Amino acid sequence: MxxxxxLMTGFxxxxxxxxxxxxxxxxxxxxxxxVLPGIxxxxxxxxxxPITYGLDPLSSLVMLAGIYYGxxxxxxxxxxxxxxxxxxxxxxxxxxxxxMAKQGRAGAALAVSAxxxxxxxxxxxxxxxxxxxxxxxxxxxxxxxxxxxxxxxxLITAVVLAHGSxxxxxxxxxxxxxxxxxxxxxxxGATRFTFGVSVLWDGLDFLPMVIGMFGVVEIIRNLExxxxxxxxxxxxxRDLWPKWQDxxxxxxxxxxxxxxxxLLGILPGGGVVxxxxxxxxxxxxxxxxxxxxxxxxxxxxAGPESANNSAAMTSFIPLLTLGLPSNAIMxxxxxxxxxxxxxxxxxxxxSRPDLFWGMVASMWIGNLMLVIIxxxxxxxxxxxxxxxxxxxxxxxxxxxxxxxxATNNNEVLMLFTAGFALFGYILVRFDCEPAPMILxxxxxxxxxxNLRRSLVLxxxxxxxxxxxxxxxxxxxxxxxxxxxxxxxxxxxxxxEAFQE
Amino acid sequence: xxxxxSRSEFIVAIVLVALxxxxxxxxxATGFEIFPRYLSWVLMISGIYLxxxxxxxxxxxxxxxxxxxxxxxxxxxxGAELTMGTAGRMGPGYFPRLLSWLIVxxxxxxxxxALSTPGxxxxxxxxxxxxxVFASIIIFGYMMNGFTIGGLAVPGVGLFVTxxxxxxxxxxxxxxxxxxxxxxxxxxxxxxxxxxxxxxxGQPLPDCPNGFRCTQWFGSF
Lengths: 500, 221
Description:
The complex is a heterodimer.
Chain A: H1 2-14, H2 17-34, H3 41-48, H4 57-82, H5 88-102, H6 106-140, H7 144-161, H8 166-180, E1 183-184, E2 191-192, H9 206-224, H10 244-266, H11 272-286, H12 299-314, H13 316-322, H14 328-339, H15 346-351, H16 353-385, H17 389-408, H18 411-429, H19 435-457, H20 464-467, H21 469-486, H22 488-499
Antiparallel strand pairs in A: 1-2
Chain B: H1 6-30, H2 37-52, H3 59-78, H4 94-116, H5 127-145, E1 147-149, E2 152-154, H6 159-171, H7 179-200, H8 214-219
Antiparallel strand pairs in B: 1-2
């Protein structure tokens, strides 16, 4: 029973009172920021990231997990109550969740979403435990060419599964990769694109980029829409608990969503968005009366929300075993770990088992906190939603600037933040979704390093990527995915899927 | 986006390209640069894209193309001095150059598609929110760290005062701006953030002037 002993190690390390306290604070803050309309998980995590810097590695990871789940759940709350999704994965929740809220069943929708997420979180934890070691031993077979091809596959799938223009998403990844190269080159010691600015010698700090492009741009865009009509549901919240009938209607959807999400989350480039869309489609197919969907069907909330959360769990698997983030949020998590001096990957499992399994345990703790503190506090979050935006945005902006400034008390970082905000604003004006850029930014140095090593091995001959079997299979898969996009039938299905 | 007439856009475009070209030409001939060579390239690329704007059918994609070409070209321009190396022994310039060319290529591809496929027009930006939000971000850094102006060193004033000012500036981003309300909100948020960030979370932020914690600052009198 390796899995059990490992889990015990994890809970032993992460389950101290202090750490549970950090998980609690993280979860509260994550929900607090995540619930604000228009702020998705990416800016939420970015804003709260600096808070975890001062802690020891394990505690900071525990707190981060709390923030992550809080942010995810906060996003669902906003979707259900205000019909304003902070990110793509919440769009699905909006469809039926908001309808339920309009019918006065907001409490049931929120509770089912929280409990379904918790169940999904438990299953996701078991998945990670069961799969981490086998995958890590596969990872040890990987050589530089294999890693490079895996990154190519991951980036391509990430692009196909995200919404919006594929070509633009690829271009954003490339820009991210280029920005990731700023700083001192590890191999030659040459400084690249630093323009004599000493802050850039260690590379571009990623907080100004993330906070500028996601946090600040969101604020500006919300300010541009004068008098947004936010039809927040402020109905009574006394009937928070779902009726017995709601449980009976939704448990099957929760189970289906959980397993679908767990599987889709592991895919390189897969993750939350795909999982919730797929779960919604499945629920609609399975239902006896599909016409109820879009009019407040509880399965339409339960399925996607569970899928969403279990995928959020299992998408940690590629990060923890291979050291490769599969989406923008995982890239952010990886950035946070690297700031703590942890290079995620199978090496952590052998060198610091307490840290690795503690991290896994902390995810479960984060999930538990979510249910324990958030269900009773939903009333407070609802109050927060009714606050006018003119009080909210100066506070959010203040959190953003303090977050960036606190990393090393340098005013140049503030200029970067403003610069990236301008850049992000321009991109959004041109219908260009900047999220893939973070993925490229984090992967940039890794990709260069593995390309370099592979070509040193082969003395410059790119055929090495096809000679190594693992690498060849991965590249063939990537090609298959590219062909899928080009094929008109799949393109149509993809467009339809995102239309819904 | 608010547009000039196609004709005057065309004239501006030609002027931009000409300005850039003249500068490069003068620099080649006499070795004297009127303005940095990098700027000439930016002017020329901007001119070409501005000239394309009237004929293009998807302006937003043309905009993306412009941004990409500019980034790729900057990568090539500023990465020019980095050693290229060979594929087998890559220098620091190899991967950046590869990426920059790819970015330029994708940018041009998007631009070409934009010429024929129709798309929505670019929404006009509103400058008020942008200006005040950016101003408050930048002011924050200088108010916290202090700055030197004309030989006069102004010390940092600490988070307490800075937060009030930032909230006030940020509040001006809305047209319906109420000074009194903003000051009150600023004071409230300032106390809240100092308590949370400086004291509860122990972030290394000075909350009083000259880089002090208030607990120390009052003690120094």
